[in-house]
Design goal:
Helix content: 40-55%
Order of helices and strands: EEEHEEEEEHHHHEHHEEHHEHEEE
Number of strands: 15
């Protein structure tokens, strides 16, 4: 599955943009502020119906426009397909697959899996655990679509348990009524933890290899750090019962998979607190490429790699390595201020898109 074309209307600084992407690597080149990142964002929005940069979709509208629309054309062995995402303030977002309206684009097999690097995504490495949990759960969903429901089911049970804690604190329910929700939360919780643990176990050796490839001297590792030590639903339910009094005092559930973390380390030190900006950047790239390797091996579906402003801070050797990685498997799109920053940009099969003032050529 690959993206063959992109059509954007009134999206960010583009009144109109129609581009074809290369089968392997596309390079978007132009000065700062020209709209390179906006074009990457349009690809992501057209494939997923979401932005990787903002939760306020009004930001996606070109100034003075009333609606934004992105259409992405994809191709697989069955032929071409069209994914459409349109946004108009005050109206529900419109999503279509081959002309048919759908509730979301995430579940369809007619879109590529996507992996995106933006400078602000360094929060995955140095930010709060919630970022890493959400990212890991997306990987689980990509690896095993049937297991993606565990997180949603756990979140619903957690919300119900927290609401019940509030009613008990207000004197409108008895503490014993928590038992049923403890069992429900524990049932979905152990499923979620098992999926996370399996995904990280598969990812870990690939992450170590890619981190070394990208120049992290000293061993880099990724490890799953669950809050609970239980491996059965009964065990997790017992832990919740043990902490029930504290939860009632706080008014929320403080124990369970919603408090898990993923530890990224380098030379046995956590990158979150001790890694330099360059080390954190290399670790994020290693994570994304390790996930690509895993998805290629397990599902034969390497994701579309969208890499923004990744070459500027690398030396010539690492630029060459990164360019080789991008061409190694699947499809990639990378932005650069100078074409010379992307080794092999003149190789067969590489498409170059030049951006200036909201125009693409």
């Amino acid at each position: 599955m690959r993206v063959t074309g992109l059509s954007a209307r009134d999206f960010r600084n583009y009144e109109r943009a129609d581009v074809e992407l290369g089968a392997r690597l596309s390079v978007i080149v132009g000065p700062n502020g020209a709209g390179k990142t906006n074009l990457l964002e349009a690809v992501y929005f057209g494939c997923t119906g979401r932005s990787p940069r903002t939760s306020n979709e009004r930001d996606l509208l070109r100034r003075g426009a009333t609606a934004a629309r992105v259409t992405v054309t994809t191709a697989d062995e069955d032929g071409e397909h069209r994914l459409e995402a349109a946004f108009q303030p005050g109206e529900p977002k419109l999503l279509r697959i081959d002309g048919a309206t759908v509730d979301n684009l995430w579940a369809t097999e007619l879109r590529p899996l996507i992996s995106v690097f933006l400078p602000e995504r360094l929060e995955l490495v140095k930010g709060a655990p919630a970022n890493r949990r959400a990212h890991l759960d997306q990987l689980v969903a990509a690896l095993w679509p049937a297991r993606a429901t565990a997180r949603a089911a756990y979140s619903r049970a957690l919300a119900q348990r927290n609401a019940l804690l509030g009613r008990i604190r207000a004197g409108n329910a008895a503490p014993d009524s928590l038992g049923a929700w403890d069992a429900e939360l524990a049932r979905h919780g152990v499923e979620l933890m098992a999926a996370r643990a399996e995904a990280v176990a598969l990812l870990a050796p690939r992450f170590t290899v890619r981190a070394a490839d990208l120049g992290l001297d000293g061993r880099a590792e990724i490890a799953y750090r669950p809050r609970s030590g239980a491996d059965t639903a009964d065990g997790l339910a017992a832990e919740l019962l043990e902490r029930r009094s504290a939860d009632l005092e706080r008014g929320f559930t403080a124990h369970g998979p919603h408090r898990d973390d993923v530890r990224l380390s380098h030379a046995s030190e956590p990158l979150r607190g001790f890694g330099s900006q360059g080390q954190q950047r290399a670790a994020l790239l290693a994570l994304l490429f390790a996930e690509r390797d895993l998805l290629a091996d397990e599902r034969d579906r390497p994701p579309l790699m969208l890499l923004d402003d990744v070459m500027s801070e690398l030396d010539a050797g690492r630029r060459a390595l990164l360019a080789d990685l991008l061409r190694e498997a699947g499809q990639g799109v990378v932005t650069a201020t100078e074409l010379e920053h992307v080794p092999g940009h003149d190789a067969p099969g590489v498409t170059v898109l030049r951006v200036a003032g909201g125009e693409v050529s």
